[in-house]
Amino acid sequence: MSEKLYPVSIEVNGKARSAQVPARLSLVDFLREELRLTGTHVGCEHGICGACSVMLDGEPVRSCLMFAVQADGHHLTTVEGLAQADGSLSILQDSFCEAHGLQCGYCTPGMLIASQALLNETPNPSEAQIRDAIGGNLCRCTGYRQIVDAVQLAASRLAAEKK
Amino acid sequence: MADAKSPYGFRYIGAKRRTKEHPRFVTGRGRYVADIALPGMKHVAIIASPHASARIVSIDSAAALAAPGVHYVLTGAEFCAATDALAIGVDTPRVTRYALANGVVRYAGEWVAAVVADTRALAEDAAELIEVEYATTPHVVDPEIAVLADSPQVHPAHGSNVLFHRRFVWGAVDEAFANAQNTVKLRVRWGRSSTVPIETFGVAAQWDAGREILDVWASIQMPKFPDQLARALRLPGNAVRVHYDVDVGGSYGVKRGIKHTALVSYLARKLGMPVRFLEDRLENMRGGDMHGPDRLFDMQAAFDNDGTIRALKIRALDDVGAYAGRSPLQLGKPVSAICGPYRIKAVEYEPTSVMTNKTPQEAVRGFGQSPTNFAIERTIDHIARHLDMDRIELRQKNLLKKEEFPYLIPSGSTYDSGDYHTVLDKAMKAIDYPALVAQRDAARKAGKLAGIGISTCLEPSGGNSAFEPLFNPKNDTTTWMDSCLVRVDLSGAITGVMGTSSSGQGHETLVSTVIGEVLERDPASIRVVRADSLNALPSNSPVGSRMAIMLGGAAAGAARKIKATLLAIAAHNLGCDAAALDYKDGNISLRADPAKKMSWDELIAVAHRKYHLMPPGFEPGLQTQFVWEVPTGGVLPTPEGVAQIYPCYSFETHIVYAEIDPATAKPSLQRYVCGHDCGVMINPDIVHGMTYGGIAHGIGAALYEKFSYTEDGQLESGTFMDYLLPSAMEIPSVDIVDHCTPSPLTTFGQKGSGEAGYLGAPAAIANAINDALAPLNASLETLPMSQEALFRVISASGAAGSGHR
Amino acid sequence: MKSAAFEYVRASSLAEVCAALHDSADETKLIAGGQSLVPMMAMRLTRPARLIDINEIDALKLITVDHNFVRTGACTRQCVIARDAALGAALPLLKQALEWVGHVQTRNRGTVGGSLVHADPAAEMPLVAQILGAQMVLRSHAGTRTVGAAEFFEGPLATATRPDECLEEIHWPVWAEQRTGSAFTEISRRHGDFALVAAAAQIAVDENGVCTRVSFGLAGGGYIPMAFPQLAARLVGGTLDDEAVQSVVNDAASEFDPGGDLHASPEYRRHLAVVLAARMLRAAYDDARKAS
Q: Which of A123, B333, B411, B648 is buried most deeply by CB count within 10 Å?
């Protein structure tokens, strides 16, 4: 391969990761193919479906619309980084299980990223706010209803935990 | 969310239960085909035709072959000579299909060549260097022209563009129309859309030269996939091993990538390297061959002044695109419910499947039932309007009553059970129908366009696919089966084995719940694994809402045999008849003297280790298999076209309230209730989930989604910017109310439900929008009902307004 | 859908960008948020040989709010602008417009400058720039020049930015009038999609509810987002009576002259233009009357 390689150092889920990558390697492909973090999924590669959503410096972005080289020096959280330190499910992940907020699982990592970002900023979101927060994540299995239920359940459980 | 306790009196069946599939998906540990990295794997990119119809004059691959990282360029000339044509569901041997164009291209997007390279990016680079010279030929995109004798022909060797045409007459139809007190006539159009899963189709294949086995991992949902693949590749069936333990990211019918798989498998075998092809979204939309029905209906109804419907005439013209697999059969499945949930004694059905130079169709959720339900329900509303009769009242009059089941419909299927009036009542109560009418009327007074839509529809389930021999008598297939193997190991742990893939339906949960119910052991302790196609028992795949019935039934059957064996072991060791024993939680005791007992662990030990204590005639170990035929299966259709198709009939009713801003023509769905009866729900959360999802698909088909073609046969909506999948902002909050009319044909009374919601939503939404337009004397009979289309009909009626409000 | 290969340069200063562009602007593109550029690269509709990444230049991310102007750096993220309270108070129209831009993920990465330079006919930022008469500050090796919105937008996806220039800042005029109101809306197919038609207005009134200043515009339908200063002037001195508004919006829709596509015909867009422009004028007016 004669393509020029660029060094990148990215903190992914709290771990420093380094590699040499072609400039055109998308961030999602880097995560999946280079780091073997296959939890982030590819659905459209043109920025609509949201399956590739990850947190860049704490905010959800579409990783298919970034090149890996652009993430050099930044912090990423993927679905693999949402669990608790001891490996058990986060309250949000567990709420998705309880409310059956997923079926085939393909959009789920993106939904979790978008929902977690919402709860980080708005701990008690209304249904309208939840739908808006996941408005950039398409799902073809659930019709969104049980996903909304899951986020509402997580919010109430997080609030109860605080007390 | 479902209740903690089963509403049906079972221990596990019907109670709320988290799925076994959840944990891996919420942690990003699913195993989809794109996650599988085979060592040394190469990647494929496709060169597709830009023309709707052309002869391929030449293909120059020299520059591509010289490009970095390229291993091979495959064209149709080689591939079509080395493999056999893919199967087609009707008797049209001269309509042949291969993964790559065979000298001619028949639709824009058809695959012409495949490049194999070290990475997908390099394959795409090389694909751009391939030069194809085409000589364009006349094309046809309008199905009403394509049926004519002088139309350009998509497959000239076939002699016409018509793949299938038949006029079925069940009952005294002409007499009913001749004597009718009233008739209506209407034309409705179901636009070309599809289920478009978020994961595209992907396949990886590897040829093991030492063992002469082709290993295949694919995002697949397809009956007879290994068999059709083997046949295409001219391999014996036992040289193909499809791995069913690949997670599939949604399918709802369409993941039938037999052409993708034949292509990749051929390359893997030829090159001696593992090869993977993941459709990108452009390839998927235009050349993945996964479009859905594209259907024009001409409907007529004959009915009395009091609303009794005497007969229906249904003419359906479906545009399958340039090639066909099973797609023409999507006109056949609706025969199983051709009169809907109504007491209509005479039906004429004239389906025509026609080819045009467009992307081919594939099986879509419901296999043609949703378009048919839409056409029937629009007809019902037209009848109501003609008689100035309330639409609910008209339905109540014609809906089959609970006492009439089992009910034999004119086309030959028997509806097993139902209580349609109760479900409709429940839904009306849930939405507070009188208040809804008042709300609509108040909105109208305030100058809005507002409408209520109702649909009452059937979901045929169980997958007795007798429409196959119905549409192709040469295909005398009547076996529609599924299986389960259950084993209890030496430690007493239970494992169930299923032999097909899943795409979100929760089959592992289904199987473990059923086995747990029968053996009275906690489903959480029961593991479910998938066989591969070499060691799997027969399965016809998750299609036709069949798995709760068929896989559930098979799991129950196998578990019952395990239970019988345990009782036999206990009877033999306790010195009594099995009938004198009580089985509880896997432990067995003598009813008359419970101190005499054998625990689960003791029974297992006998089965596995203590042959000297085994009853005579029993095999060592503890494993059983259960393979069974679909209830009502095994009978060929009559020459007159009367056939028993699916066994179990679920019912759904949708009530929708919609408003349209008359100034902007933008519709808004504001209230939505679905009444649903699929018999016993083994896992209510799973059933509800698929219903919510089906409704969302239905909203997409009704209002947003269309594969739109230009006159030149170019797909205009080939990206997600133009093919509009609804987000959470477009789908309203939906309430489901359940009812349970068990099926007499199944193990627990369950009926199928994978297609629920989708089968009735477009009909109800179309009825709501038309109710909203009714005061303008306007109507819209084409799906999707886009804003542009709504603007045109509202403008034409003169009510568009200046929008001061 | 993998992009064609390119050389990547991560610029750490605007000077570095301008030097690189001066050296060779051939087949070079600047990448900011990438929300419009990268899909085009993935589909190989555009294949720059070199990509200069301006996301790491802090100087391009400033926000300053003063009496007369709000200055936003070209690379300021849309989400940052949306959250800035002082900016929102000074430029409510910009904040309102941002609610219609894409989705959360789009706004977390997309930049206001990127949207302006990309100049999609249906985009929200260019429409606001036209209505407020924003000034674009363009920097090159040769120096700086300022171009007003009316001259900046030249055609669909085309601006006055020269190949060797980089947008540095946008100056947004702040209305001094006390009683000012604004409104933004669009009709799209789905939430977050490009507008079929977008309309927005900003109005100032005196203590009697008489319009003292009016600005409004339309976007969507193919050409460029437009403001209508002469038509708006006809509403000054009045209280937005039906006849006056109708006449103004009809003329605006004619001048706007939208085209058609797969999703909406020219006739439907023209109709929407009339309806939405009237609604936004009224909404801005009502908003102004409430403000004191």
A: B648
Is there a single domain that holds both residue B686 and residue B590?
Answer: no
pLDDT tens digits, one per residue of B31-43: 999 999 999 999 9
pLDDT in tens, B499-520: 999 999 999 999 999 999 999 9
As given in the structure block, the two tokens for residue C182 are 């604004």
Tell me the H-state helices in chain C.
Answer: 14-23, 37-42, 78-83, 85-90, 92-98, 104-109, 112-118, 124-132, 149-152, 229-233, 242-256, 266-290
Residues in chain B with pLDDT < 70? 799-805
Task: Determine phi and psi for A60, rounding to 5 degrees.
Answer: -70, 135
For residue B37 the two structure tokens come to 């990295």
User: To 5 degrees, how large is the angle CA B279–CA B283–CA B284?
Assistant: 70
Total count of domains within chain A: 2
- Name residue A16's amino acid: A
Q: Which residue has the tokens 């390297």?
A: B273
pLDDT of residue B475: 96
Contact call for B28 and A39, based on CB within 8 A: yes
Give B209→chain A minimum CA distance, Å.
27
> What stretches of B109-244 adopt beta strand conformation (E)?
111-117, 131-136, 162-165, 168-170, 182-190, 202-208, 213-218, 240-243
User: What is the ipTM score, two decimals?
Assistant: 0.98
Using an 8 Å Cβ cutoff, are B162 and B168 in contact?
Answer: no
CA angle B603, B607, B610 (to 5 degrees): 100
Strands B494-498, B527-530: pairing is: parallel
- The whole-angstrom separation of Cα C60 and Cα C72 is 8
Within a domain: C162: yes
Q: In this structure, are residues B717 and B706 in contact, taking their beta carbons and an 8 Å threshold?
A: yes
The reply to whether B488 and B548 lie within a common domain is yes
B587-630 pLDDT per residue, tens: 999 999 999 999 999 999 999 999 999 999 999 999 999 999 99
The rounded distance, in Å, linking the Cα atoms of B655 and B433 is 9
Indicate the residue among A29, A57, A81 that finishes a domain: A81
Chain A residues near residue C47 by CB distance under 8 angstroms: none
Last residue of a domain, one of B594, B629, B664: B629
Residue C73 and residue C60 in contact, taking contact as beta carbons nearer than 8 Å: yes
- Chains A and C form CB pairs within 8 A to the count of 85
CB–CB contact A44 B734 (8 Å)? no
In a domain, A43, yes or no: yes
- B613 and B734 co-located in one domain: no
> What CA–CA distance (Å, rounded) separates B616 from B602?
18
Report the residue from B22, B23, B249 with minimal CB separation from A106. B249
Asked whether residue B455 falls in the same domain as residue B534, the answer is no
Is the same domain home to A56 and A114? Answer: no
Give me the pLDDT at residue C292, please: 65
> What residues in C contact B280, CB-CB < 8 Å?
1
Among the three residues B569, B603, B629, which one is the final residue of a domain in this structure? B629
**DSSP 8-state assignment for residue B580:** G
- Are residues B692 and A45, on separate chains, in Cβ contact within 8 Å? no
Q: Are residue A9 and residue A71 in the same domain, yes or no?
A: yes
What CATH number is attached to the domain comprising B450? Answer: 3.30.365.10
Pick out chain A residues at pLDDT < 50. 1
The pLDDT of residue B803 is 44
Q: Give the residue numbers spanning the domain of B691.
A: 401-462+646-796
Domain that holds residue A135: 91-162
Strand-by-strand arrangement of the C63-65 sheet: C63-65, C69-73, C166-173, C135-140, C143-148
Q: Where are the beta strands (DSSP E) in B101-149?
A: 104-105, 111-117, 131-136
- Shortest CB distance from A79 goes to which of B27, B247, B692? B27
Whether pTM > 0.80 for this model: the answer is yes
- Specify whether B676 is located in the same domain as B710: yes
Range of C112's domain? 60-173
CA dist B357 and B374 (Å) reads: 26
Decide if B595 contacts B584 (C-beta within 8 A): no
